[in-house]
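Good morning,

Attaching, inline, the C-alpha cells for the sequence recovery test we're adding to the shared suite. The designed sequence is right after.
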C-alpha cells in the first residue's frame, strides 16, 4: 500500500499511474513514482498568497 508523504493516509491509484491523496486537509494532490524515492514527484496545491500590509506614504 502506498501512503501519502505528508499526511500518511493511503493513496488511491488512478489509471494514469498517479496516486491521489483523498485527504481534504492535505496539500498533496498526487504522487508519481512513489515506489522510487530517488525520482518520486509530489504535486502539491499552490500556497495561498500572503496578504501584505500596505503602508500609507
Amino acid at each position: 500500500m502506498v501512503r501519502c508523504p505528508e499526511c500518511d493516509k493511503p493513496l488511491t491509484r488512478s489509471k494514469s499511474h498517479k496516486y491521489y491523496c483523498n485527504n481534504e486537509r492535505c496539500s498533496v494532490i498526487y504522487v508519481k513514482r512513489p515506489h522510487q524515492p530517488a525520482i518520486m514527484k509530489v504535486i502539491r496545491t499552490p500556497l495561498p498568497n500572503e496578504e501584505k500590509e500596505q503602508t500609507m506614504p
